[in-house]
Amino acid sequence: MRKLMLLSIVLSLLVTLPMIAKGPNGPAGKSNVGHLNLYEKINDNSDDWPIVEDGAWGKMTYSLSGPEFEFVFNGHGLEAGVEYCLIYYPDPWPGNGLICLGRATANGGGNVHIAGSADTGDLPAENDTNEGAKIWLVLADDVDCTAARMIVWNETEYLFEGALITFDDTDE
Question: Residue 31 has what DSSP assignment?
Fold first, then answer.
């Protein structure tokens, strides 16, 4: 009986700990720091693309307000040796006016780290058709950061927002 109970506890922890590690989206209490999870998703032709179970994922912490959008992003389960770009994507396609936040190549373990700050203005931008900003991790070759738009669509290779975010630019 004792072994059965111990086994039940261990199995429960194995199921819940990965969800706890990814954590919630949104602000951290009353601080100026927000948290956003990004996920590999499946386009099932609905408005709510389901998350791929055991798929690639990432977590971004970011400033909710300030003179620049400051962020730290860590992605996991990605393809090793591939260069990725973290972007703000305003709808509609092809995301005209998107902002490239940073680039990095996934290491041998499929992890990527991108940190920095960008003068984004308020997010979402005025011309964005969304109520909040979409943050995506895309293949670096699929985005033209100079023209500020997507040039190729490889949705199975991207990480998509778990929630929309906002940023208040305090020096506009």
Answer: S
